Amino acid sequence: MLSAGQSVQSVAYSPDSRYLAAGEVGGEIRLWTERVGAPALPGYLPGHEVAGTGPISADGRLLITQEDEPDLSTTTRIWTSGDNGSPKPRYTLPKDWEANWFLTGRDGDPVLLAHHWAGGLDHTLQLWRFGAEGQPHRSASIRYTADVPHITVSPDGRLLAVGSGEERAIALWDISDPAKPVRRADIPAQAKGGLFDTGSLWFAGPHTVVTVENGWHLRFWDVSDPDHPRMGDVIEDAALRQGAMYDDVSKLLITEESGDTIRLYNLSRPARPVEGERIPAAPGSYFPAGNDELATAAADGTIDFWDVSDPRKPRKKRETVRFDRAITSLAVTPDGRHAITGSPYRIWSLGRDGRWATPELATLEGAESVRLPSGRSWLAVTTQTDAPGLAWPTSGTRTSSTTTPTASTRPCAAHNPSVCRRTAGRRCSRI
């Protein structure tokens, strides 16, 4: 059963029985589709992401799934999604090729970053552009040596940085033309992190690359001129903590400090973070919540909201939201009408004044991950077991329609921060 945001005083089915309309006492009408939990796809969405990338293309039309095969190999497939999220198979990657990402920061045809590895230390990257139909158009190959590769893309999709513990420098590639990647320069640093540790190499905005120096410090590099990268400032000891984050919307950099606190920085100038104040927040429990707004979550389920337009003078807003448990993720849609928290993953309605309506609009029972395609009216949900509350037909990756008819609402359009976290075992995700 899907719960409404407020008490319901009337319901009605459409003549074709495809929709259920629920009229609420607050004056809004919510529209539920007939197939809330369908369709389902085999496999799962890739979970390893960095800023400027995602398993769903920027236009929401293509998505990536992966399936584990009995021989321990992985099959990667590309699916085309219709307006209602109904998917159709588009392309299966050849043997030994895999892909986790579309470049989501660019316009035009969707571009996939494909990776080939057949064992050993030799790796190959290619950019595959998907037109309206047919096979993808492949770029020239980018080759490198790595035990554990580290790859990151600028949020605008124009630069690619590739490094490892085996390469003596980080290669900076211009991928403005995905058909012809050009190696512009080398950054004199190495990326030595472990598997799934995205903090060894990441972009903080389109013109700043961040690396870890001596295993302790965060070093910033100005790549405004990709042909001549320049060493920028350093934040000492920041790499010793569990995470760091950059929000491209607010130009806000966050590092973790002792005592369950975080430090705010203004990163409006490439590679030149300006130190601001500290605010209370547990490791990994801080989330962009809109333009110049940050949400911090406590272990008791409390969420505080901060105005961080001036990192030197953060201001706690009056509203506080209290849940029945601590949350691990939070995303607010660009129109400010809905929010998704996890886990468990729940969808919430937000009033015009930003207040959260309770109870939740829906709970996605059994969901292990949720993706929100930009500008689309559906969710991609990965589950491992049947979800009793939503009656999923089979396990796998599913699309769920959650639309309302009010005021040009885009309830499942993704909030689009460029977020990177340096993690110990945690993944860097774009929410």
Structural class: mainly beta
Question: What percent of the residues sit in helical stretches (DSSP H or I)?
Answer: under 10%
Distance between the termini: 26 Å
Mean residue pLDDT = 79
Number of distinct helices:
0
Largest sheet: 6 strands, antiparallel
Q: Whole-number radius of gyration?
A: 22 Å
Number of strands: 36
Shape: globular
What share of the residues does DSSP label as strand, in percent? Answer: 35-45%
* Poorly predicted tracts of residues: 385-431
Word description of this protein:
Helices cover about 0% and strands about 45% of the residues. The protein is an all-beta fold and about 425 residues long. The protein has a domain at about 1-35 and about 335-415. Strands 5, 9, 10, 11, 12 and 13 form a six-stranded antiparallel β-sheet that branches. It has a four-stranded antiparallel β-sheet with strand order 4-36-35-34, with no helix packed on it. A four-stranded antiparallel β-sheet has the order 14-15-16-17, with no helix packed on it. The chain is globular. The two termini are about 25 Å apart.
